[in-house]
Amino acid sequence: MKPVSQPDRFQALDACHQQIHAHLAQLTDVLEKLQAGAEQVQYREQMRVIEEFFTGNARQHHLDEEKNIFPKLLASDNAELVQAVRTLQQDHGWIEQNWLELSPMLRAIAEGEDWVDMAELQHNVEVFLALLHDHIVLEETLIYPEARGQFAEELAARVKRLVS
């Protein structure tokens, strides 16, 4: 497998954030319809797609950040930046914990089961939305720009060494 370049990696991370937003909007829409009395059968496929996305792609996205973005930032001498990365790492744990509670409910709806308590589902969705929203804002406003800047500096240093 060909290694992924840093610019491509950032494009992939940004694209995943867009997909997260789209799936969260879809989840919110479906939940509103279910709470208004719509039959679950109409939304089984959407719930399956949402559950599979967050179980697969979104989890992998967090692993990619932990492996490819966070380590260099944690080595920074900027205490505010290091604290922001540690906050994001903690967020990953909270997001995962909330997902472990939410995922079975979405899967149950997707499979046509009727045990899901709508109030509990609503609460878990609200927590999940808040966690992911705040998390993505911190990444996109501080972490990703900083990581891109570090990558640009590394690239410039390599070019300088090659030219020298």
- The percentage helix is over 70%
> What's the CATH C level?
Mainly Alpha
Radius of gyration: 19 Å
CATH superfamily: nmb1532 protein domain like
- Give the ordered list of helices and strands: HHHH
- The CATH topology: Four Helix Bundle (Hemerythrin (Met), subunit A)
Largest sheet descriptor: none
Total domains: 1
Q: Residue-averaged pLDDT, rounded?
A: 91
Give me the CATH architecture, please: Up-down Bundle
Cα distance spanning the termini: 32 Å
Give the number of DSSP strands: 0
InterPro entries: Hemerythrin-like (IPR012312)
Pfam families: Hemerythrin
Protein name: Hemerythrin
Domain Hemerythrin-like: 11-146
Structure, described:
By secondary structure, the chain is mainly alpha-helical. It has one domain (6-163): nmb1532 protein domain like (Four Helix Bundle (Hemerythrin (Met), subunit A), Up-down Bundle), CATH 1.20.120. It has 4 helices and no strands. It has helices at residues 6-35, 44-74, 79-110, 118-163. The longest helix is centred in the last third of the chain and has 46 residues, at 118-163. It is elongated, with a radius of gyration of 19 Å.
